[in-house]
Specification:
The complex is a heterodimer of chains A (108) and B (674). With 108 residues, chain A is an all-alpha fold. In chain A, 80% of the residues lie in helices and 0% in strands. The termini of chain A are far apart. In chain B, strands 10-11-7-5-13 form a five-stranded mixed β-sheet. Chain B has a five-stranded mixed β-sheet with strand order 6-14-12-8-9, with no helix packed on it. In chain B, a hairpin with a 4-residue loop joins strand 10 and strand 11. The longest helix of chain B has 35 residues. The termini of chain B are far apart. Classes of the chains: A mainly alpha (108), B alpha+beta (674). The interface between A and B is medium-sized, with 29 and 32 residues. Chain A: Its main location: endoplasmic reticulum. Chain A: Component of the oligosaccharyltransferase (OST) complex.
Chain lengths: 108, 674
């Protein structure tokens, strides 16, 4: 029905507008998450990697960590108001490093 | 100086003990090298001492002369005088008469006041040395001295060292005897002959205390082993031998010492090898008064069949030829005979035909002991060679044993009748064919006789082997031992009791007889034939016959060669495919970068002032380093190294990162505030 499609279009447009309003920081993080998941999916399909393979883990792991970072950095999030973003970023970096160490150990 | 003097003394005195017959080359002067091929001979008269190297005299004579001069001027103890005199006499130093007089008077003074054995010994020995040099010595109170020395003796033949000490020792006995001999040779026939007889008895008593090792060597040792005073068997025995031989040489008449004791002592001195110290070596060489003679049998197994002769060889311990002598066979186990063995000069062996002795295999012990008595032709040799009285040797006699009256047959269990016994000739294979069931018995008997017609009885009952072997077709074997009675060897196999042992196997059994002994020259294994055994059925719980031994070749022979199969390599996708997927994986990464640029990512908030800039750079560098470390870790490092390096990089990174981010935070708050 044209109304439904209209509604869908309107919905999408509004989402897009809202998204454009998000600060650049968060957009970068979102981008990173998207591509980490994309890598994971590609690996899953084409590399015969099972769900327990280390490569898959690394992709999903970084995605998860990036999501955490986004949550913590987002100024509109009430829970994390007093947390300086740099601290969150430090956490992100350190956790990534530890994750990669474990992945490397698992690989070799 | 004192220690060197000791070494000297013993070295030179051991030199004195060697005297060389002229054709042989002289051995070296100092007594360190072992010389078993030169038989040492001891004699006590000075004109037989031959010095080997004039170099020695020239070298040391001057030294010794000056020492004696020095000795003569002061008043040294008797011991030093004694040794100095001995050594000067060996070296042939020229000492003038006045020195000798001084020394002699000094020694006389010591002798007058002497109350210990060693003082007697040194003073009398010194006076004897002076006399031997050609200088006249007068001993005033010979009897008194003799009695004084004798007073220190004990009833068991040993001597006390002085009037104060309560312990007597064998070593002191040797010294005392030597001193007494010195008195007798200084004075000559003035000494009371009855005293000499008493001393001779003492010597015999002393020899009663001789000890022996298992192999027949005899030695003297002290009864009480005192810590510091203990001299050891070598020194003690040497002292006794020296004393006894000195006394025997000095006193007239004979000393009755059994020949085997002398032989035992000589064996002792020869068996200790080459001692480590000069003193011990001197003792050893000095005491080899007589050379032992050894009796040996070149062949200890004599065969009656080949009519062997009993041969005896007599040599010295060094292997050289013995002097002319006669060997008598005193006893050959049971038969006493006084047979004299004939001498074969070509082979240097004494022999005797044993057929004349009527020795038999087995009935009297084949391990016979022969007693020999050796008599030397030349009576002078008695002093030089020790024959050791009666020697006993063992020899073993073998011969052909005849097997007679062999019979084999089957008996009924109840009657044991003698019917149906077949005669066997055991000198060749037989093929007897018997058959029995489990109610019957098998009987085999025979008689063994020696060449002289007696029943053969081995001296050792476990030496003779008489076995009967039954072997089944399936190669299961049973061995039985025949019993021996007074007249014959017999076995009765009662099959009723043996059914279990035979594993209830019926069928054909081969019979084999084995007879053997060390004394039997014709031991044999003979096949007798076969027997058909009919045994009942085995019950359920009967033992199975043991499995056959595996063919040794199959068990121990070479095995099949196994070729190693490598694990099949895992299937990997072809290279091109992998590369394609690599590209595909990297696609999101490039997409990420593209998206970043589209979003307008910039490096605006990168700090511009130098110090924070440096920290930022370090921060990024630190992260890059950690990632590089991970790559290395994957490629070749192990976890521990990685963790170690991470332990360095981690805190560094934390520090740097903290600085950078705090700076960034402060700038952003400043921006917000502004």
């Amino acid at each position: 029905m044209p109304k439904a499609t209209n509604d869908a279009q309107l919905l999408i447009q509004s989402l897009r507008k809202a998204y454009a309003a998000t600060p650049t920081n968060l957009k970068i993080i979102d981008l990173y998450v998207v591509f980490a998941v994309a890598t994971a999916l590609i690996q899953l399909d084409h590399f015969h990697s099972t769900l327990s393979s280390p490569v898959y883990f690394s992709c999903v792991g970084t995605a998860v960590l990036a999501v955490c970072l986004r949550i913590q950095v987002n100024k509109e999030n009430k829970e994390f108001k007093d947390l300086p973003p740099e601290r969150a970023f430090t956490d992100f970096v350190l956790c990534n490093l530890v994750l990669h160490l474990v992945i490397m150990n698992f690989l070799g | 100086m004192a220690r060197g003097a000791d070494l000297w003394r013993f070295s030179l005195l051991s030199v004195r003990s060697f005297s060389i017959p002229s054709p042989q080359p002289p051995p070296p002067p100092f007594a360190r090298s072992p010389t078993p091929t030169v038989p040492p001979r001891r004699s006590s008269s000075p004109d037989r001492w031959i010095l080997r190297e004039k170099r020695l005299t020239r070298h040391y004579g001057h030294f010794r002369y000056s020492e004696l001069k020095r000795v003569g001027s002061s008043s040294p103890p008797a011991k030093d005088l004694f040794y100095a005199l001995r050594i000067t006499s060996i070296l042939g130093c020229q000492i003038d008469a006045s020195t000798y007089d001084e020394v002699a008077s000094r020694l006389h003074a010591v002798l007058k006041d002497a109350n210990s054995l060693l003082e007697f010994y040194y003073s009398i020995g010194g006076l004897l040395s002076i006399k031997d040099q050609g200088h006249d010595v007068i001993l005033s109170d010979a009897d008194g001295t003799f009695h004084a020395i004798k007073a220190l003796s004990q009833s068991d033949g040993r001597w006390r060292l002085d009037t104060n000490s309560a312990e007597s020792s064998t070593f002191a006995a040797g010294i005392a005897l030597e001193s007494l001999a010195g008195v007798v040779s200084l004075v000559g026939s003035e000494v009371d002959q009855s005293m000499i007889g008493v001393v001779k008895n003492d010597i015999v008593k002393l020899f009663g205390s001789i000890k022996s090792f298992d192999d027949g060597t005899l030695y003297f040792d002290e009864k009480h082993v005192d810590g510091s005073e203990y001299k050891g068997p070598l020194t003690t025995s040497a002292s006794v031998v020296r004393g006894v031989s000195a006394f025997a040489a000095a006193a007239s008449g004979n000393l009755n010492i059994p020949g085997d004791k002398i032989l035992g002592l000589a064996k002792f001195f020869l068996s200790i090898g080459v001692p480590g110290t000069t003193k011990d070596f001197f003792n050893q060489i000095d005491s080899l008064v007589s050379i032992p003679l050894i009796l040996s049998l070149p062949a200890t197994v004599l065969s009656l069949t080949s009519k062997d002769q009993l041969k005896v060889e007599v040599t010295t311990v060094f292997g050289s030829a013995a002097p002319p002598l006669t060997v008598n066979l005193v006893q050959a186990y049971s038969s006493d005979s006084k047979d004299e063995l004939q001498f074969d000069a070509e082979n240097v062996v004494h022999y005797l035909d044993i057929a004349a002795l009527k020795l038999d295999v087995g009935s009297i012990p084949s391990f016979l002991r022969y007693l020999f008595f050796v008599t030397l032709h030349d009576p002078d040799n008695v002093n030089i060679y020790a024959t050791g009285g009666q020697n006993s040797i063992r020899a073993f006699i073998t011969g052909l044993i005849k097997v007679d009256k062999a019979e084999i047959g089957i008996l009924e269990s109840d009657a044991g009748s003698v019917e149906s016994l077949q005669k066997l000739d055991l000198s060749k294979d037989n093929s007897v064919s018997l058959s029995a069931n489990h109610l019957q018995k098998l009987r085999l008997s025979f008689v063994l006789t020696t060449p002289l017609g007696h029943t053969f009885k081995p001296i050792r009952t476990n030496c003779l082997q008489v076995f009967l072997k039954l072997r089944h077709e399936t190669k299961v074997e049973h061995i039985f031992i025949l019993e021996s009675s007074a007249r014959q060897y017999k076995i009765v196999l009662d099959f009723l009791g043996l059914v279990g042992k035979f594993y209830y196997l019926s069928g054909k059994y081969e019979l084999e007889l084995t007879v053997g002994d060390a004394a039997m020259e014709n031991s044999f294994i003979q096949a007798l034939g076969h027997i058909e055994l009919d045994l009942p059925e085995p019950p359920e719980k009967a033992a199975r016959p043991p499995p056959l031994a595996a063919d040794p070749l199959s068990k121990f022979g070479p095995k099949q060669e196994i070729s190693h199969i490598f694990r099949a390599p895992e299937k990997r996708p072809p290279k091109e495919l992998s590369l394609a997927f690599l590209g595909l994986t990297l696609l999101p990464f490039f997409g990420f970068l593209f998206g970043l640029t589209k979003l307008g990512v910039n490096l605006k908030s990168f700090p511009s002032s130098p110090v924070p800039a440096a920290f930022s750079i370090l921060f990024h560098a630190g992260i890059a380093a950690v990632l590089l470390l991970y790559v290395l870790f994957w490629l070749k490092l192990d976890l521990f190294t990685t963790l170690k390096i991470l332990g360095f990089l981690g805190p560094f990174l934390v520090f740097v990162g903290h600085r950078t981010l705090s700076y960034l935070a402060s700038t952003s708050t400043k921006q917000k505030a502004a």
